Please model this.
Amino acid sequence: MRLGARVLKTGIAITLAIYSAMFFDLSTASIAGISAISALKSSVNQSYKSLIEQLQANLIGAILAIIAVITLGNNPVIIGFTCILVIIITLKLKLENTIATTLVTVVVIMEVSTSTEHFAIFTFDRILAVTIGVLAASFVNIFLMPPNYEKKLSRGMISITEQTNKLMMMALHKTVSHNGLKDEIYQLKEIMRNVTKIYRLYKEDRIILVGRKKKEHEKSRKIVLFRQMLVTADNAFDTLKALNRLEYEINASPKEFQDLVKNELTCLMQFHEHALMKLIGKVNFDQTAPLHREENILKDKLTKAFLDHHDINDEEKQKTWLHLFQVVSAILEYSENVEHLNTLVDSHQTYHKEYQVQVEQVETM
Model:
């Protein structure tokens, strides 16, 4: 069983929040821990944004809670009404991500009656506890354990390529049923969505202040690479879907054309995989050149065979040709993006080799 970084961060943030509250001799240290749980975010950028939003929303909630408890009392109905009002205001201000923590602030303030001795001290105590929890969570996420999406993203890209290639080979060699492949494609689509989400988090993530300018330059280079890797993976996925969707039309085409599709895609998948392996240093720089040349030859042959198959006088052939056009166009677009990816990788390895792409290691039993 693997202990994830988010699990560790949650535990550390809670511990830090409670210890900080105890250091200030607050009577509500547990509230700081609860606030820390709510304030943890997925990325450094989200943590910066969340910190500002949480402080704003908690201030609004605290002010409303104090006004309500002074003017109306702390009857459960009044507390509920105040919470509804706070939710409406936070939604209007587009601070919906802070609702949970803000409501904690409102409830813990309003549970104390104004008739209680030192009401102001109790209120300040609770506001400070919530603020400490938010600050502790932000500190852990920004400085202590910032997320490393680069490793996850590169591992995800390689994994998607391997899985797509595997399914593509099964489709080309007819070792999987139509419905079986359809189910696998659906599962792969979910994985691609997760990788796309990681890419967005990586793209929006901020750089920590130390060495900021150099790291931003490095990251901008890598974003270009990762974006092209994602586009190429999408093209491979679209080609796989076309093979599955138009299986009957491909099988009805001439044997020579089917063989060319199989040979072109086999070579193209190897070229794609080699480009990725070259980026992380597992394939020598010159090993992709022969594959590139072979892929260009096979692509030309496939295009010629496809055009030769066109017969405007035969209505049935014309229908088949139009369906096959979708397959060929998907393959050509995939090929174009693999070539572009390979060019970017070559440029990166030649001029920016110091910016190594990190890959998350897969644990083996």
Observations:
- Residues 315-351 form the longest helix (37 residues).
- DSSP finds 13 helices and no strands in the chain.
- The mean pLDDT is 83.
